[in-house]
Write a structure and sequence with these properties.
The structure is a homodimer of 163-residue chains.
Chain A lengths: L1 H7 L1 H26 L4 H23 L17 H7 L7 H7 L3 H11 L4 H7 L4 H15 L4 H10 L5
Helix pairs in contact in A: 2-3, 6-8, 6-9, 7-8, 8-9
The first copy, chain A, binds a DNA duplex (30 and 30 nucleotides) through helix 6 and helix 8.
Amino acid sequence: MLTVFLSKNKLIILYGASLALILFLLKWLEYRFVVISHSFEIYVGAIAVIFMALGIWLALKLAKPKINTVVVEKEVIIEKEIIVASGIGFVFNEKEIEKLGISKRELEVLQLMSEGFSNNEIAEKLFVSLNTIKTHSSKLFEKLDVKRRTQAIEKAKRLSLIA
Amino acid sequence: MLTVFLSKNKLIILYGASLALILFLLKWLEYRFVVISHSFEIYVGAIAVIFMALGIWLALKLAKPKINTVVVEKEVIIEKEIIVASGIGFVFNEKEIEKLGISKRELEVLQLMSEGFSNNEIAEKLFVSLNTIKTHSSKLFEKLDVKRRTQAIEKAKRLSLIA
DNA sequence: TCTAAAATCATACTTTAGTATGACTAAAGA
DNA sequence: TCTTTAGTCATACTAAAGTATGATTTTAGA
């Protein structure tokens, strides 16, 4: 019971502990700096920096962007190409994506590739390392059974995997 | 000139202004609270909260835009215009091709690039050397004002330079 | 709780891609 | 005829892209 609670709220507990630690640290800093004259600004600045960093960290940690793939299965009589050409909207070929076993992250990379971004630029955009993008693209090429990114783009567009 | 600068850096200026405002506010708060005894904690707490909020706001503002791939399914009625538009024939944007000064050979290379062929494969197909293809593609990138073949493909398709 | 898939990153390496520069030829115009 | 342009090719680079392999960490499911 307790262990379940612990594991389930691991993240929250971690945050609480972090906060407590920081508060303790701040209290200590307060007593250290308050005696030294003209250190008030430094103390306040430190707090500002620490909490801003904490805020940024929290936001980035908690606000994980997820791809909302809304599946609406309806009768589609007309072929994709015609729909695209008529500019009504783009229909992702989710069946094919699933069939090929392409993950969300891989799809993101594929999309950015098709927009002309380099691996480095994609890495920056997704806040991951270059190596990660290379790994993603390699797996992508395997799944798509292609050898190059240009081929991947061509095939992905043809199969309506990406816009 | 100045207005262009202002409009281009609107966001950055806004951030700067916000920061200045907050600093001003904090200074005021400092003088208000510092005289009142035992308000030190309140002041520090306020700073912590404000800067944490600022951090969260900043992170959310600057973080990666969520990719919401929403599948929109609409009832599509087949019409003559749509079928015609759907590609019985592709209309090349010859004006743009001429405007950019792209030669026939370069256009051939561009087309093959977009089909996913490597420089080597293109060279074989056109019965020329790899270096020739590299020269063509380099000139092509200059004329298209791009850095990579994937960008070239994206732009060329967007401008209907190729099918 | 245990596990498998997904995502991350690294190191080391090979292969393509792309740049810079210069040279040669053929064709088309002024 | 002279000049320009397109097309060809080479050498020598630098910069990306892609492969192989292994490791770690999340995340989601059974």
